[in-house]
Design brief:
Elements lengths: L1 E13 L26 E17 L7 E4 L2 E2 L2 E2 L7 H18 L5 E7 L10 H20 L6 H11 L11 E4 L4 E3 L9 E7 L9 H7 L9 H17 L3 H20 L10 H14 L7 E3 L6 E6 L2 H14 L4 E5 L3
Parallel strand pairs: 3-6
Antiparallel strand pairs: 1-2, 2-6, 2-7, 4-5, 7-8, 9-11, 9-12, 10-11
Helix pairs in contact: 1-2, 1-3, 2-3, 5-6, 7-8
């Protein structure tokens, strides 16, 4: 039997940076539960950025086997190349889910991304969410056990990739240390256009996982959870009031806060480049100089993500940025017709 599921990626406007298990305890310094964030984060779900995962139960296998998914329902995918470490992590997540259901069989595991692999978008969230969804579906059928609720599945997915739990909710989600939910108050802000400017494609010298650990050494980390939690509330309030400029300012301050943590860690590190600053300055000084520009954010990397209103002005601003970047940076205007 074969099962296939999809899940979308997401982009956080209020960031998750730092994990509770990386914050040492006074008593033992031992790690606590896995992938529990130190602060609340808020993200926008990107429905046009889908990962696909397929499971095929095969009684002749003696272990789970990962391979690229080549086609599905008429779609042909670019071959996905997972490192040995990446495929091991992926299959380990499946093994955890099989153990939960008490299933001892094995699968062909096939996965693909329905978006460019070199566009600066981390696919970990969407791929682990899709794997969790399809595994829960298949294992529920094979073991005749109840299908987990969305909340339960999101919590399972978090164990494999923290931010993947946000991909179970749309169009906006809030992830607190204790739970993840959608944001009904922002349902009317679901039709946004997403653009990413890739200023540097090189593999990061400091991985996101390592960044989560290092930021706790920064003096600026003191008070960081409270600042992020406060910004979540302020951002939601701004959008509810249709204060797009206010939401921009909050998201702008938030990603600079996160990158300041990187630069003041011990040892310090950073992701910003001259190209990053060029794009950010153009957005602030040009796109916001007249009319309404985009919301802007950056992850733990050099690339810049933008969210525009789905309007004539929003589309015009996105085209203006693409023209500015032409010949220097790659620009992917995803979902922008």
């Amino acid at each position: 039997m074969i099962w296939t599921q999809t899940a979308p990626s997401n982009i956080a406007l209020i960031k998750y940076m730092g994990k509770i298990e990386h914050a040492s305890t006074a008593e033992t310094g031992a790690p606590r539960a896995k992938n529990i964030p130190t602060n609340t984060s808020l993200s926008f779900t990107l429905p046009h950025l889908l990962s696909y995962v397929q499971l095929e139960h095969d009684k002749t296998l003696s272990r789970d086997v990962w391979e690229p998914l080549k086609t599905f329902e008429g779609k042909t995918f670019e071959p996905l190349a997972l490192s040995e470490k990446g495929s091991t992590r992926f299959l380990a997540h499946l093994a955890m889910l099989k153990q939960h259901f008490g299933f001892e069989g094995f699968f062909h595991v096939r996965s693909a991304n329905g978006f460019p692999s070199d566009c600066g978008l981390a696919s970990s969230a969407s791929s682990f969410a899709a794997l969790t969804k399809v595994a829960c579906e298949a294992l529920s059928k094979l073991t005749n056990k109840p299908l987990p609720s969305v909340d339960q599945a999101a919590n399972f997915s978090r164990l494999g990739s923290g931010s993947s739990c946000r991909s179970f909710f749309a169009p906006w989600s809030v992830w607190e240390p204790s739970k993840v939910t959608d944001v009904p108050e922002l349902a009317s802000f679901g039709d946004l256009l997403h653009q990413v400017v890739v200023v540097d494609e090189r593999v990061k010298a400091v991985s996101s996982s390592e960044a989560h650990q290092r930021v706790t050494t920064s003096e600026l980390f003191l008070g960081r959870p409270e600042r992020a939690d406060k910004r979540v509330a302020e951002f939601v309030t701004a959008l509810k009031k249709n204060d797009w400029r206010g939401a921009f300012e909050i998201a702008w301050a938030e990603f600079w806060d996160m990158h300041a943590l990187f630069e003041t860690s011990k040892p310090s590190f950073g992701y910003m480049t001259g190209g990053s600053l060029e794009v950010l300055n153009f957005v602030r000084d040009r796109l916001w100089s007249e009319g309404e520009g985009p919301l802007v954010t950056m992850d733990a990397g050099p690339n810049v993500h933008l969210l525009y209103r789905n309007s004539d002005e929003g589309r015009a601003k996105a085209r203006e940025l693409a023209q500015f970047a032409q010949g220097r940076f790659q620009v992917f205007s995803l979902g922008l017709n």
